[in-house]
Amino acid sequence: MSSSKINKSLIKNPPLEGREALYVIKIGGNIIDDENKLSSFLKSFADLSGLKVLIHGGGKLATRLAEQLGVQQQLIEGRRITDAETLKIVTMVYAGYINKNIVAKLQSKGSNAVGLSGADGNLIQAHKRIPTPPLGDGGIDYGFVGDVDAVNNTLIKSLLDQDMSLVIAPITQDKNGQLLNTNADTIAQEIAKAMSNDYEVHLIYSFEKRGVLLNAEDDNSVIQTINQDYYKDLKDNNVIFAGMIPKLDNAFMAVQQGVKRVVIGNAEQLHQLITGDAGTSIIYE
Length: 285
Hints:
This protein is 34% helix and 21% strand. By secondary structure, the chain is an alpha/beta fold.
């Protein structure tokens, strides 16, 4: 991948008049665990001109550490059940090691990055997820998992105005001193929505796959566009499952609520995802 600056004149969906483009990019999957691929992605991110926010996950590292510490892990449709011990682990891994490792690497690549969690500057306020339906009726207790109530778009805008790149870990807080673990795809969607009044927001979900696949074993079976009806069919026929479901749920919610573009694809194709030449585009019809 070229290390030259990504030319925003190449973007097929240029910013609306009077509104600057903002790229909200979520990085996850196996890319986080691969030092070379992560470094290549961060070089592309650093070379991207303009305003940008990076949201990262890191579930595999958290899972490995939990196993080493003897803390049993449980995932339901790609979402982690977070008990008190798991909360400590994900906070250390997400808001600690992974966040600061990414910030340091971006600084080395000439990007003035600042690392934050939802607790910093009251960036993301959330509440502990309430089981729906209630527990006695088959509901699931997700533990210390947070659902977002508010995003501090004023803080984000002020940092962007200072030419800083934001790197955000998916740890939130409830304003009563309780940290909460929140799905990184959801964080990306909530930030994209919150900033859409001020910017033309492009939300990109990037990971190791080239997009949403018709065949999970065939990386060339990329679905170019998905609308809501097609998404329902894919779920009903078990073509997509597990972690892809919350990703697509968040993608559709974003385009329904003011986000200009949502694309899902390979982190190593960041340039092409931005220009619209790769990945899966989410269409609201």
